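yo, Cytochrome bc1 complex Rieske iron-sulfur subunit is done. seq:
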Amino acid sequence: MSSETGSSKDVSEEHLPHKQDPGAVTVADDPFADPGLPAHEPRKQDIDERAAKRSERVVTLLFALSSVATVGFIVSYLLIPIDKIVYIWPFGHVSGLNFALGWTLGLALFCIGAGAVHWARTLMSDEEVPDERHPIAASPEVKAAVLEDWRAGTQESGIGFGRRKMMRNSLLGAMALVPLSGVVLLRDLGPAPGDKLFHTKWEAGKRIVNENTGLPLRPEDITVGSLTQAMPEGMDLHDHDFHSEIAKAAVMLVRLEPADIKDEQSADWGHEGILCFSKICTHIGCPATLYERQTHHALCPCHQSTFDLSDGARVLFGPAGHPLPQLRITTNEDGELVAMGDFAEPPGPSFWERG
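structure:
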């Protein structure tokens, strides 16, 4: 009987809740208890040498492809003509040199990055190492002192976030309105340009004058292979709007052999091989007046945008977004070069309203 009683007692104790140490902290008491690190799981490459060899070959292949792409970049730069235009779907007609340089350099950089990442993920050590950190939470005493200082400060200031609501609300309103000052200052950026960017000082019959001498230009003044900088007649350096207008109206004239002009419309808009283009680069507005007479290329010194003046000032290289606008010219009864109207499109850098 006593044996049965003892057995019954043991069974009942097993089903009773265990007594806990009053000072012990459980997960239920502390929801942010440290769960510890999970057991380390080896990768396939750690236990299978053949898998490790495969990863090694993949990384080697990526690095080798990067080397080949770099060599391709150098070869492309040396062999592809700067004015070579190719058709590549779906991009359309693009510069063959720019396309080759971009793809080879991009592939070289990508393969280096991909190889390094694959190396790190499959072959480098990935053993987790814990590092103990000191607690960053403030002690209860510090928290209590900060709250007490806050209450005392609000009471002494007379605001009291539970009292004097009119003062509190006026403060919040003032702080909300202050940023509007910055918005108003945006007006000083200047008035909207309207259609000013679409019009310049050029008009039908306006004589083309040398930018340095101010004298009208004649066809005989423009020799083959030369570049002459010019502007519309009647512009004076002392005019209040001179700088804003010359920034749109400045042009350059070149004379080519008629057989060297590739674009038919460009030839029709010129006079006896003399072509007139805006000299304002269509990237950010620098003067694109570095001229190479053998290739008929005009170069912008700021960011190396290159234009083919023999082919409608088409962009060959650089960040410029569109060709230099051409000014249609002829001669008047006195044999002087004159404009036949304004530019067909706005000169200078692109802007969002541009068609």
